[in-house]
Write a structure and sequence with these properties.
Elements (H helix, E strand, L loop, with lengths): L1 E7 L1 H5 L3 H10 L3 E9 L2 H7 L9 H8 L3 E9 L2 H9 L12 H5 L8 E3 L3 H11 L13 H4 L7
Antiparallel strand pairs: 1-3, 1-4, 2-3
Length: 154
């Protein structure tokens, strides 16, 4: 079982998309094991996006993600990082395929609705920025055998 961090960014919060995004993740069969809504302060934003420091979009990105409330969550499932990245779509809405979150809801080349960790290493680092171990729940879904075949769990 793998975990990833997903953040519903301020533009999606302001556009009333929290429920729609959560619904898509749950409908896919993914498990939300931690969830919180709060502002992302500048210090946290700079840690989250440290790998982009020095790039031309870094300062506008920090300003964007600190402009309002966000919803951060830990999502769990087999191959969850690649599944969520597929569901999210290309970085910007105009480039994202229909059926993806950004493809269906995004039109901007600056605001892109959602963040999803891109690797197991970044997921661990990012989850640790947002949640303590005791914030993350362990529980079973009764329908897990119907979501994942035995071969998915190997």
């Amino acid at each position: 079982m793998e975990r990833t961090l997903v953040i519903v960014k301020p533009d999606a919060v302001q556009r009333h998309l929290i429920g729609r995004i959560l619904h898509r993740l749950e409908r896919k069969g993914l498990k939300i094991v931690a969830l919180r809504m709060r502002p992302m302060d500048e210090s946290l934003a700079r840690k989250m996006y440290a790998e982009h420091q020095g790039k031309d979009f870094y300062e506008p990105l920090v300003a964007f993600v600190t402009a309002g409330a966000v919803v951060a969550m830990v999502v769990e499932g087999y191959d969850v990082i690649s599944i969520v990245r597929s569901m999210v779509g290309s970085t910007f809405g105009p480039d994202a395929a229909p059926g993806t979150i950004r493809g269906d809801f995004g039109a901007s080349r600056r605001y892109n609705l959602i963040h999803a960790s891109d690797s197991p290493e970044s997921a661990r680092r990012e989850i640790d920025l947002w949640f303590d171990d005791e914030d993350i729940l362990e529980y079973e879904f009764l329908d897990d055998p119907w979501i994942y075949a035995a071969v998915d769990r190997e």
